[in-house]
Amino acid sequence: MTIRLYNTLTREKDVFSPIDADNVRMYVCGPTVYDFAHIGNARPVIVFDVLYRLLRHVYGEAHVTYARNVTDVDDKINDRAVNDFPGVEPLKAIRALTEKTYTQFTADITELRTLTPTVEPRATETIAEMIALIDKLIAGGHAYAAEGHVLFAVGSMPDYGQLANRSLDEMLAGARVEVAPYKRDAMDFVLWKPSDPATEPGWNSPWGYGRPGWHLECSAMSWKHLGETFDIHGGGIDLVFPHHENEIAQSRCAHGTAVMARYWLHNGFLQVEGEKMSKSLGNFFTIRDLLNDWPGEVLRLAMLRSHYRQPIDFTVKSLEEARRTLDDWYWFASDAKGSGPAKAVIEALSDDLNTPKAIAELHGLRNAAQKAGGDMAHAEFVGSLRFLGFLGETAEAWAARRKAAAGINTAEVERLVALRLQARNARNFAESDRLRDVLAEMGVTLKDAKDARTGRLTTSWEVKG
RNA sequence: GGCCUCGUGGCGGAAUGGUUACGCAGCGGACUGCAAAUCCGUGUAUCCCAGUUCGAUUCUGGGCGAGGCCUCCA
Question: Is A384's CB less than 7 Å from nucleic acid strand B?
Answer without folding.
Answer: no
